[in-house]
Write a structure and sequence with these properties.
By secondary structure, this protein is mostly helical. The protein has five helices and no strands. InterPro entries: Phage_TAC_18.
């Protein structure tokens, strides 16, 4: 939306600030999400094989906790996307 309008969505303006300690996980999620596949009518979740390939190609080494955060971010993202369809 921001790319199209030049303005961030109101939800982002009202969101609490991102904790600095988790900023890298948000960046990783953005990388993974931008490379996700799509089905006929919806986006595919980020799979473990997708994450494994990303780890090999990027050199990042997420901890098990960070992997769980990535999965929860993806789940929340897909829920929000489905609400708008």
């Amino acid at each position: 939306m921001e790319r199209a309008t030049g303005k961030p969505p109101p939800e982002l303006l009202e969101a609490p600030p991102l904790p600095e300690a988790l900023a890298h996980v948000w960046g990783w999620f953005a990388e993974l999400s931008n490379a996700r596949g799509a089905g006929a009518f919806t986006l595919n979740p980020i799979s473990f094989p997708d994450m494994e390939a990303w780890v090999r190609l990027s050199g990042h080494r997420p901890t098990p906790f960070e992997v769980q955060l990535l999965r929860r971010l993806d789940e929340s993202f897909l829920i929000e996307v489905s609400k708008k369809q």
